[in-house]
């Protein structure tokens, strides 16, 4: 096991809810939900630890959350604030490593094999990062320290909140053996059910299977399961990790019932997606429309074309086509979403060419000459 990496996974504790409790002292120690209110048919985006004790969790309808805990406080999300705090936290990360892979606003991997502060160990580095986050933001984070990303991510959730768990190389195999297979990266409920049918419930059970047997039952991904069962994960921390999609969705206080209402609601979503693409200097070839009906049934429909989507007009037009083709008119709609995937960087030369074309066209229309 020579040349082992030293990986830290940092995961902020109930991030959105903790920011709200920090900024409003009256919320501290009380069950709190960040999300839409029950009368607006909202959904829980985040729940404080006090709310979680009542069984409240992310993606739960707000009405259900209120039934679980009638005294729960509902707070509207402030994503601009969360993004600002996230930037502050990532600034702390950069003091210790240049190899940072963000996963979301509230979590990231750091490779600290050679930490910038020359601290004696990855564990000491994680402690220093946690301490700096608390001193500078008033928020707590949990950290997992291990030789790879798979183990570090599991470790960070082991002693939440405000935890720090170290899994040494010598402990790795025994630790994996104790895990329920649902906790393995890439094993969802469908695969877990299939594994249960084969008598695989824990990492120890999975370790008994050969690579060939796992491939026979699960296809190529069986090789990945074989590696994880042996505490192996070759993935490096990737600082240039590219988003897979850019999207926006919105829930409505009142259901939308007509095509005109739906088309009108799609327009600002298309504008927001186009704005986010421009900010990140991306375009994309696949557009996905998401519809959630009043009865919570959900469909997604996608269209891929040979030229990329960039402008709000293009995005709105294609989303409308998908809507007309797939909306079940007898059903009212409570949520709409648009996402662009299959992303590529916008070529600066393409943009320059477009700008010159627009400039030339403008000059011709106004009777000007470049001579």
The strand line-up of the biggest sheet is 5-6-1-7-8
Report the C-alpha radius of gyration, rounded: 24 Å
In whole angstroms, how far apart are the ends?
69 Å
- Architecture (CATH level 2) name of the domain at 245-351: 2-Layer Sandwich
SS elements, strand count: 12
What is the fold named in CATH at topology level of the domain at 245-351?
Answer: Dna Ligase, domain 1
The residue fraction in helices comes out at 40-55%
Envelope shape = globular
Please outline the major beta sheet: 5 strands, mixed
Strand content: 15-25%
What CATH first level of the domain at 245-351 would be assigned? Answer: Alpha Beta
Number of helices: 14
CATH superfamily of the domain at 245-351: DNA polymerase, Y-family, little finger domain
What are the key terms here?
single chain; about 375 residues; 4-stranded antiparallel beta sheet; alpha+beta; 14 helices; 5-stranded mixed beta sheet; damaged DNA binding; globular; DNA polymerase, domain 1
């Amino acid at each position: 096991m020579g040349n082992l990496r030293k990986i830290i996974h940092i995961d902020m504790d109930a991030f959105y809810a903790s920011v709200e409790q920090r900024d409003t002292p009256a919320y501290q120690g009380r069950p709190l939900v960040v999300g839409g209110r029950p009368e607006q048919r909202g959904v829980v985006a985040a729940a404080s630890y006090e709310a979680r004790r009542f069984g409240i969790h992310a993606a739960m309808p707000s009405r259900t959350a209120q039934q679980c805990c009638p005294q729960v406080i509902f707070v509207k999300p402030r994503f601009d604030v969360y993004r600002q705090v996230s930037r502050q936290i990532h600034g702390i990360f950069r003091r210790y490593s240049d190899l940072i892979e963000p996963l979301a606003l509230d979590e990231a991997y750091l490779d600290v094999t050679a930490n910038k502060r020359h601290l004696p160990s990855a564990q000491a580095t994680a402690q220093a990062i946690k301490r700096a986050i608390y001193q500078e933001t008033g928020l707590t984070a949990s950290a997992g320290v291990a030789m790879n990303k798979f183990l570090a991510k599991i470790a960070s959730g082991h002693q939440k909140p405000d935890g720090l768990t170290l899994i040494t190389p010598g402990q790795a195999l025994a630790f994996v053996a104790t895990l329920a297979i649902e906790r393995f990266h890439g094993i969802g409920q469908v695969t877990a059910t299939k594994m249960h049918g084969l008598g695989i419930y824990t990492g120890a059970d999975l370790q008994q299977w050969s690579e060939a047997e796992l491939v026979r039952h699960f296809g190529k991904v069986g090789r990945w399961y074989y590696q994880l069962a042996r505490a192996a994960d070759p993935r490096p921390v990737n600082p240039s990790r590219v988003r897979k999609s850019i999207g926006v969705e919105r829930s409505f206080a009142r259901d939308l019932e007509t095509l005109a209402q739906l088309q009108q609601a799609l327009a600002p979503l298309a504008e927001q997606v186009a704005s986010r693409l421009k900010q990140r200097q991306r375009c994309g070839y696949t557009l996905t429309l998401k519809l959630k009906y009043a009865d919570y049934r959900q469909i997604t429909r996608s269209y891929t074309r040979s030229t990329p989507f960039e402008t709000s007009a293009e995005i709105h037009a294609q989303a409308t086509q998908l809507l007309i083709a797939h909306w079940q008119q007898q059903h009212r709609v409570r949520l709409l979403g648009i996402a662009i995937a299959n992303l590529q960087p916008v070529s600066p030369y393409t943009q320059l060419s477009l700008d010159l074309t627009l400039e030339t066209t403008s000059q011709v229309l106004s009777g000007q000459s470049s001579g």
